[in-house]
Amino acid sequence: MTLKETPSQTAGPYVHIGCTPNVTGITSVYRADPGATMKTGPVKGREITVTGAVHDGMGQVLRDAMVEIWQADGDGLFRSAQETRGDADPNFTGWGRSAGDMDTGEFRFETVMPGAVPTADGRMQAPHITFWIVARGINTGLQTRMYFPDEAAANDADPLLARIEHRARVATLIARRDGAEAYRFDIYLQGPDETVFLDI
Amino acid sequence: MADTPRLAGYIARDAGQHPAALHPAYKTSVKRSPQAALLSFPSGPGEETGPVFGHDMLGPLDHDLIHNFAADGRSAIGPRIVVQGRVIDQSGRPVPGALLEVWQANAGGRYRHKKEGYLAPLDPDFGGCGRVITDAEGRYEFRTVQPGPYPWPNGVNDWRPAHIHFSVFGAGFAQRLITQMYFEGDPLIWRCPIVGAIADPEAVRRLIAPLDMDRSLPMDARAYSFDIVLRGRRQTLFENRMEGL
Ligand SMILES: [Fe+2]
């Protein structure tokens, strides 16, 4: 018998108390906020920075969101007990969490360029980073992916991007270059540029 | 070659068991809810793996909100409770090693947060965050004080039922979940627009923790039980059929 999943509820305006307490000034409980550092030593591959913000349907930036990313290492392997394809870079966690800047709402991740990862049935996907966004007013966490603007050929062959019916929306999943080894990814909850969110 | 049962992709989320993205009675959802359909895609390695959290990340008081912010020799004010339960997946299998992060208001309904303006006082001995990692059977337990209900700016007189927020990591990132636990018997549950975003009352009931006297600690704390079900994976038929079967 298949049980029913526990329902989601909004993370609310105080998600940072539980997930990044040090950012909120609760500094005596946890040594460090989980996910604040993705690199724990010298990492394999290209080191990159990813910044961005989450925008509501009125074009305003959310200042109470929490954004998490999950990605493969430079060789396309995940640092996870469930990874069956090989041993990932021991100095790279693959998981980052950002409370966003309390004034500007901008998130920032110091990470590495992910290697390509296949689908479950063995088709190669373009390099990408999984994003998960929660905030007040978001009743179930939103999952999406960031792809890279300098991987056009791989993006053209990517099986998930190929499933997007309205082709103009593919662009909502592609970051833009923002300087050397830096990318910017803006997430739009609504409006003409609404980001493609995933049921995956 | 032996028959090998194999885990396939994650079972798709049942939207009917979750809150609607757009629930106008919860006003903030109006401009923060995506309007296009979600893009469905089978899970793969990126969703079936997830970050690893070891017990070594936990401090000795991480699971004790009564004491983890309190000055030496002091404790948080409010009704003392134990919250405990199991994390399992949709197949009923325990999820060991799951990180649960919890946060809540104090016994007066006040959060320790600079954007919070409710007139109920802060408790100098209560921070409001804690965390725990499930054991081999998927069990967890933490201690805290029962949070108070609090008013919030939505309608002119909306009050949140008493609740504890939970953030949960399973084995795969596809299982990532944030939810809220409510307390048996709270009349505010059925008046709350955030709860009301879930259309199915049976689904709401799975967020309501019953009082569990058998697990209560006499002369110390009452207990509430809250089991969490994360997404499960489909199981494929046996991959390698033996000859003659
Ligand atoms: Fe709350």
UniProtKB/TrEMBL annotation, chain A:
It comes from the Bacteria. The keyword Oxidoreductase applies. Its EC number is 1.13.11.3. InterPro entries: Intradiol_dOase_C, Intradiol_dOase_core, Intradiol_RC_Dioxygenase, Protocat_dOase_a. Residues 50-78 form the Intradiol ring-cleavage dioxygenases domain. GO terms for molecular function: ferric iron binding; protocatechuate 3,4-dioxygenase activity. Coiled coil: none annotated. Keywords: Dioxygenase, Oxidoreductase. Belongs to the intradiol ring-cleavage dioxygenase family. NCBIfam families: protocat_alph. This is Protocatechuate 3,4-dioxygenase subunit alpha. It comes from Sulfitobacter sabulilitoris. The gene is pcaG.
TrEMBL record, chain B:
GO terms for molecular function: ferric iron binding; protocatechuate 3,4-dioxygenase activity. Gene3D superfamilies: Aromatic compound dioxygenase (2.60.130.10). It is an enzyme of class 1 (oxidoreductase). PROSITE patterns: INTRADIOL_DIOXYGENAS. Its EC number is 1.13.11.3. GO terms for biological process: 3,4-dihydroxybenzoate catabolic process. Keywords: Dioxygenase, Oxidoreductase. Pfam families: Dioxygenase_C, PCDO_beta_N. Residues 83-111 form the Intradiol ring-cleavage dioxygenases domain. It comes from the Bacteria. Belongs to the intradiol ring-cleavage dioxygenase family. This is Protocatechuate 3,4-dioxygenase subunit beta. The gene is pcaH.
